[in-house]
Amino acid sequence: MRLHLDTNQRKLATVAGLCLVLAGMFTAVSYSVTLYRLFCQVTGAGGYTARAASDTAAQSARVVTVAFSTNVAPGMPWRFAPVQSRVQVHLGQDTLVFFRAENLSDTAIVGHATFNVTPDRAGPYFKKIQCFCFTEERLGPHQSVEMPVDFFVDPRMAKDADASDVDHIELSYTFFPSRQPQGAADLARFADAKPSAAAGQKLFATVCSACHELDRNKVGPPLDGVVGREAGSVSGYPYSAALAHAHIVWNATTLNEWLTNPRGFIPGATMPLSVPDKLRRQDIIAYLETLKPRG
Ligand code: HEC
Prior knowledge:
By secondary structure, the chain is an alpha+beta fold. The protein has two domains: 2-25 and 199-288, Orthogonal Bundle (Cytochrome Bc1 Complex, Chain D, domain 2), CATH 1.10.760; 33-193, Ctag/Cox11 (Pfam 04442). 26% of the residues lie in helices and 23% in strands. The chain has eight helices and ten strands. The chain has helices spanning 2-22, 33-43, 188-191, 197-208, 241-244, 252-260, 262-265, 278-288, and strands spanning 63-72, 78-82, 86-90, 95-103, 109-118, 126-130, 137-139, 144-153, 168-177, 185-186. The chain has a six-stranded mixed sheet, with no helix packed on it. It has a four-stranded antiparallel sheet with strand order 2-4-8-6. It starts with a helix and ends in a 7-residue tail after the last helix. The model is unreliable at 1-9 and 12-58 (pLDDT under 50). Heme C binds next to helix 1, helix 4, helix 5 and helix 6. The site of heme C has 32 residues, from helix 1, helix 4, helix 5 and helix 6.
């Protein structure tokens, strides 16, 4: 019994330590290179999408911090902020981050975002696959939306004598009122977006893999085949008593409640992270649904 408590206490200490690193949903997630490699091997993903037009062999162990900042042109009645202040990514890792925009006025407004990457010498290596900055964007009166930016840092940066030492990149966006509002895209499309397992996989890599591997214990239990599995049932993982005796099966509904508020859903459970945004939860659950039991 005492041994069990000790294990749990140690686990809690690790979790508490990790929380300092995580400090919220998307902030400063760090994870080990080994874990990342393993994740890539297991999923065969290598963090790339076809559109990244990059060589998977170029995947790099090098990690850089990408920090985000936002501005709005004077007089434009929008609130605009990054959802995560920074992420740590491997060179070549396809990464998904979010920005929240809200129109504070009574009329629809079309905006256009410009971006700036510093230091300048990192600019050519910062590759955006999907970005609201590609188009004129309309936001309805008092509407708010989370907009994705999908990017990777080109591994070739490590071979550029001028840029190889860069380990911190700052990406800043400024929204201006559009000069060509005709034909603008509607930002509401992000609010209506269908759940995407591909997006969920990228979120898993930056958010969940700090604590979860697919096929072995880390801080949390392995998540392969979690959909359809009874909660707290992986033998050899030291679950909290609350999760071990929860008597629920993980499916889209229970996972949604768990990720909304783990300790509200199962009081006494020890997972310290939640995913407040509904669309992000749906993406992650869509990804978990693709994971078959191993072995
Ligand atoms: C800071 C560490 C941490 C992070 C980050 C984290 N988890 Fe967890 N997770 C845990 C711990 C610890 C447990 C076990 C909780 C217990 O025993 O009460 C757990 C348990 C779970 C379980 C229950 C599994 C089972 O076998 O019953 C699921 C599902 C889960 N996590 C999903 C996720 C997802 C999805 C993410 C990313 C959005 C995530 N977790 C991020 C620490 C974490």
